[in-house]
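Shipment paperwork, digital attachment
Item: protein structure file
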Amino acid sequence: MSEEVASQDGPLEKLDAPDEAGGGPADLSSEDHTVSTPEPGEQTEAEQPPASEIKDAEHVISENIEAKEGSSGEEEKEKQKSRIPEDLYYDFEELYSRPFTTEGSSIPQNLLQLSHSFGYDCRRRANLQLLDEHTLAFVAGNVLVLLDIRTKEHHYIRSCSGGGIGTIMPHPSRRYVAVAEKGEQPSIIIYEYPSLRPYRILRGGTGRAYTFVDFNREGTLLASVGSAPDYMLTLWDWRQEQVMLRCKAFSQDIYRVTFSPDNPGQLTTSGSGHIKFWKMANTFTGLKLQGILGRFGKTALTDIEGYVELPDGKVVSGSEWGNMLLWDGGLIKVEICRKEGRTCHSGAIQQFALDEGELMTIGTDGAVRCWDFESIDAADSVDDSGLFEIEPMNEMIIGRSVSLTSMVKSTIPDTTIWYAQDSNGGIWKLDLSFSNITQDPECLFSFHAGAIEGMDVSGSSHLMATTALDRSVRIFDFLSKKELTACRYKQGGTSLTWAPCMVSSNEGLVVVGFDDGVVRLLELFNPHSLRAVAGRSRSGEAELRLKQAFKPHNAPVTAISYERKGAIMATGSVDCTVFFFVVGEQYEPVGFVTVPGPVQVLQWAPQSHERNTLLVACQTGHVVEIEAPGPDVQNDGSTYQLQNLPIRHFCFSSIKSRIKRDAEMARRQAVKEKKKQEREERLRKVKEQGREPTEEELHEGEDGEEEEELPPLYIPNPPSPLHCAFYSQPGAFWLSMGGYDSGYLYHCKFAEQQSVDVLERRDEPFSFIPVQDTEHNPILTICFSAERQLLLCGMQDGSMRAFLLEAGELPPGSMRAYWAFSVHDNQYGSIRQLRFSHDSSFVLSGGADGNIFSFRLLEKEELQKHQAKIPSPRIGLEAEPAAPDIEDPAAYSIETAKQKLELERMQREAELRKQEKRKKLSELQSRFQTLLQHNQSLPEHVRLQRTELELDHRFREDAERVAAERVREVRRELAWEEERHRIGLQKLQERFWNSLMCDTVTVTAIESDYKVSTYRLQVLSSKFQQMKEHDRTVQQPSSVDQERWQSKGEQKDPGNITAGQEGLAEPVVLQPRAPQAGGSKLAGRQAEKLRKAAEKAERARAKIEKRKKEWAELYAAKPSEDCEDPEDVRAIRLATENMGDFKLKTAKDFTVPEHLRMNVEKKKAQLVILEEQIYQRKSEINERVLALRDSKVALISLLRSLLSKLRTLQELLPVEKHRPLPSVPTVLPEETPERKLRYSRATLHRYAALRDQVGRPAQEEEQEQTQDVLELLQRENKEDTHTQEELTHSHANTHTQEQLTELELEMKDMEEIRNLYMQDTLIKQMEEAVWRFDAELRLLRDEKLRLDVQMKLADLRHVTLFQELLLLKEFEKRENTLQERLNTRMQEERELRLKLEECKQQLELKKRDIAKLQEREKALTATFLASLGENNKLTDFLTRVFKKKIKRVKKKEKTSTEEQQEDSDQDSDEESDWNDDEDDEESESGIGVLDDSVCPPNCDPELFENTVKLREHRLDVEELLLEEKKSAESLKKECDSLLKKEKIVQSSLKAAEGNLELFNREKQQKLNELDVVVPLRLHQIEYTIDDVVPSKLGMALVLNTAAVGRLQERIKELQQEKSQQRELYRHARQQHVQLSHERTDMEAKIQELEARCEQMMMMKFGKLVDLEALQTLSGSRTLEEMRQESRVREAEYTQELKLWQDKVADARLAVTEVTRDHTERLHRLNGLLTQQKQLEDKLNTRQRKMGAQFQGRRQVEEEEQRRMQKLIQSQVEEIESLRQEIGALSRKGGNILPPSQPSLPPIPTMPLAHIQHPHTHFSMGWRHTPSSSHEVE
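Attachment content:
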């Protein structure tokens, strides 16, 4: 698409060549498409652009703008004239948007003038740009704000369209700034900076709004994208205000468009669920643009906010979940994340920045991270997950409550300062140098984030308070244009009201409602006034202090309003309640009422109204009027809900459809009236003319057509939302509705009858006022000026409207005359709050876009004060404590708290009543027990039975039944609690008790303070057992590891293959025929001789085979040249495994041995072993301590029994002779901790009683004396135990002293002596037992202390192993990948080796098979020669028969194709031709008379048949040999290819091993960095410098003492081994010399014997023969028989030969006679032929002379000539048939005699001219009888 400049209208007028939004190009977002800029008159066509990119964008522009080829010079001049001059500027005064006033409005256009902007649309994309070093630019509604960072001054640029600003972008040179606007057909205005003069205006780029614009790197091109509905991507030549390219970018929202800085012809767009890559190129048809949509593939679809183009054409984009996506060619190459699968950012990545080779990302998590650009550019996935893990090089966390969305770099060269946009309401200054001197992040400016939910102004000063859902409350001085103070809370603010002067004298009280239902009273004061009073330091210009906080609602507070006298405050909420408070020093709750819907507006009746009422407007369309609660209002005490307040309800019912219906009816009625008047006027004119009206004239004006149906009545469901409401008069109010009912202000009043149900009420307004242009733009808020002369309305589209009022009331007609001004964003910046200042000199607005504007009302006189007055603090404020705040969102509201208190009161009263009943019951029970006891004390005959005491057993049964039912019911009620507590107890036991193998048991000595304790030992978990079993399986060496230790040279010996594996049949050798059954042709002596020769040959053959087998075994046992002694190999391997390599592990060349390489599984195994050992050692010592504890228990039992005996003895002794009783030790609680968990039902009852006792109110007051219930229970148990012991051991000595006799005294003395001895013995026994126990305890304590040291070391070792395990887990993934690659390469190598070995074996088998077949062929030849015998006359013939290649029928497979059949046919034809040629050659030879297919008459048929059979066997062998050679050749080729593959695999295997080795070194280096604790004593340190232990042991090497000892011993062993090896080497060298001499002698002897053997063979046989074959030859019976038979036949044949010789002599004589006769005839024939020649010559001479007289005869001659030619032809055919017959007969084996001499035919009598043809016939006949001529010769 292109635009042309109309030269006749000047350079500023454009012809809108592009299509409208609805008629634009089709949606091609789902496919690649091409858009071009054609010549005028050409059609737009889609073409594939070339791969080359634009090198110079200006060249492209000039080519696109200037004239194309073929244009005339005049057109070029016209275009040059139409170019916009460089110095052209627009007038901003003519462009910027102004307020709109309707006709008839008397409101001046400059009613409001922008004073200041206090907000920041921080959630707009890319709403922060840097114009120069000190100036920031951002969009605020319809204004572009230029903010000076140093002075904080604002400069404003008003939008030109009045519809808002979409986005801004500075030029790369910072000389221009592009402002893309919103509205109907918005423009892009290029301002020159810093003059801010409009330089260029770009029109027609989109239909509604621009979302993003960007300049290319050179600044010559501008790209823009539009919003819905067209989503147009446009490329501009912005200096000439021309569209270069235009295309629909996508069908969803587009967030960004950028040029690639390194590839001028490349663009990228991204947005909702897509990213698209564009290329533009200049072709001969114009400029082209192609878009490729990015395919997400397996990656989840995501919105893409930020991306960056890389120099090589790749693109890195963000995602919603925080990872980076690397795009290449329209596809995701890899997804980039952090280690362990962590995301790069915790939220979406908003922007990328490629700065000085570093890639920076910013995210909504408030972090800026710097990544390695080269690693990301070359990133690729290592597995199927598609992830690439990388850690950032540097990062900066701005803060937890920070959410970064965009960032721009300072314009200062070589700076690292960036400015960041925070979507939580801030602008940050960041130093991204990432060095030691990096500055901390600095928040330059702070604003509200999100919509302004509450705003109000002070009634006495130019102060403004605001709140939003960003949880902040801010105070502004809009006179001095600055923010005074701000405070933050845990919940967002939803409403705000500034208390009036009658409430707060200094008007410094701000009431804020929050999202959790809390209302806070905040006091604003000047802190400077407190310094003189309290001496506080100055902290700011103003402060907010919490005065009181209460929670009247459980949902967001939406409205707060004070009563007209300031005595009552009302709050409304989304929870459909309105709460009233009494205003005072402390706000006291009065009560609440419920309303039908969420509260939207609260308004108290003005002073002019008699009744003090509250107007409550709900969002659902309900309006409620509530009478103000007075001081006499009472409630029932259990709730704050007010029941008796007078309330009136109104439920709005839509009348808009009826209004439209009535308007339509009025319109139709007016049309009818007009037509009626016209008819009457016509009739009057007719009557004036003095004639009667005709019928047509009478009915001319009547409507004959049917009227259209009126619009139907419509009631929206759900109802339209209510936006605002305000009183008009008592009982009447105005409503502004949204949705369907927008467009009017409805005047409503409450009905007199309020008896109908509130939810079913349907009330209609009694009047309405239409508001112009508000059908889809309702009024959201309304504000009156102080004098009620001016009404300001906040609209949904972000604009303000002003209406003039008459006497403070709305105009009775319509509101068509108004003044409108676009302030906030027209799409999402609806005005929520609108206020006049206290003096009506300012107007303040707050919108949903987060912007806050202050406007001056007209041009009033300058205010005297340049700063608003801040209220002074109250007297005594500094001494007041801080008011308690409500921070818990789940805190109880006032009503809920009161209901809770009431419920608790009721529960307490019920509990008191229960206690009284229980007390009475207990008294009755005690009286009844007394009666029972008294009854039991009576005599039996008087005693009453238990049944007699019952008045009626049914009472008891009923009571028991009721009690059982109640018990069951209580059990059912408590079943869940019981199960919960049971499960809780079970879990506690499993967690803290069942998991313990042994608790800490401390055994104390009896007579000393020594103690010994057990280890608190946990039970080994099932996971531990699983790990242990797993480690056992892992520790087994794998086959791969075993094979790696095997020698690569070990291969199977192909010579070991047995004959059974060869798979070939034995050679087919023609066996001699068995002797016939009729008898033997040999004599007895010859047969015996033949038998002995066969036995001798068989013995020789067995001997030879045995010798061959021994030689084969000997050669098989011979080692190869590169073979090593297995013992040496085993010794080297053992040394490699066991001899330590004492290189430092920190050395760079340290190679980790195979058996020392560590991985996660091995480390887990070490941990398992260590834990198991620790567990075993601790278990052993625990068992011993517990056994000692058991022995102490037994000792205590023994001591108690001895003590009882001792006491019994002392009772018999006088007191003065009593020895002190030894104290009996007791089992301490720490020795039996398991008793703590033992309980019985009595224990539980006692616990319950003690708990009730502790929980009494009397004891609650005495907090110092309260104790734990368990401690009281234990104390009672101890007291019970001591009491029982005292009762057991306290025996009163009741013996009385009586007077005894002397004998009794003597016996008493003896008894006393014995008792004294027993007393001493028992005491000594007790002391010895105690001493023995203490000694055992001390010994065990010493062992325990030593074990403690070992356990501490084991714990340190455990910590080290665990650290190594964690480190190994980080390397596990890479190690598994490398190990898997290595295993794969090893498996490939193993498979190739197996294949290669198999192939070599098969090749060796084929070679053996070929050798065997060749041997079979030689054997067949030898057999054939042996069968011929000596001097056989038919040797040549039979040899030719044996060697002849005959045609053999090949067996064809059933699946053979026709082509193979044809090939076989062709082969057979070729063979037949070859055989024919051979036959011809043989026929030409001298023995052509014999046919090799027929046995000659003088040949033995059996020998001929044997020859034919041998020939068949030979041909079979040749065929097999040919096939074997072919297969051997293919196997050889396969072996060669396998060898090449093996080399490739070996190289890759070596590379994999190298990578694994490097990885192991890296892993070892990381393991070396771990700190290991090694406790040493001073004598263990041998590292000294000048005999002094250095202060730093960093260079010392820690070795095990045993290892050092082994090394020292190994030195001696190596010295001894060295001497032994030298001695062995000397003996081996001597033996080697001796064996070399012996080998030389043996070789000479072998040569001598071989020469002698050859000489003897030559002397005996005349040639060299095979002795083995000669020895194995035995007499053949068949051969001997054939020799005998040949001798007999030879004699017979000799006689027959003589007879035939005689016959031949006779035949020769006859032949001589016949030859002579034949010669004579030839002479005669020769003469005749000579004569014929002469006659022919004469005849020819005559014919030449004759002329025409012989013409008649010539026809006869020609006829005769044709007849002769036919005859000749028939004779030739007959000759050919005879030849074929002769050939056929010769193949059948019959004896064909040579043809006889043909008789000469008689010479016919004909003219001499015809003799030539018979002569030719005879000559042809002679040519085919060569035998006759041969015989003649």
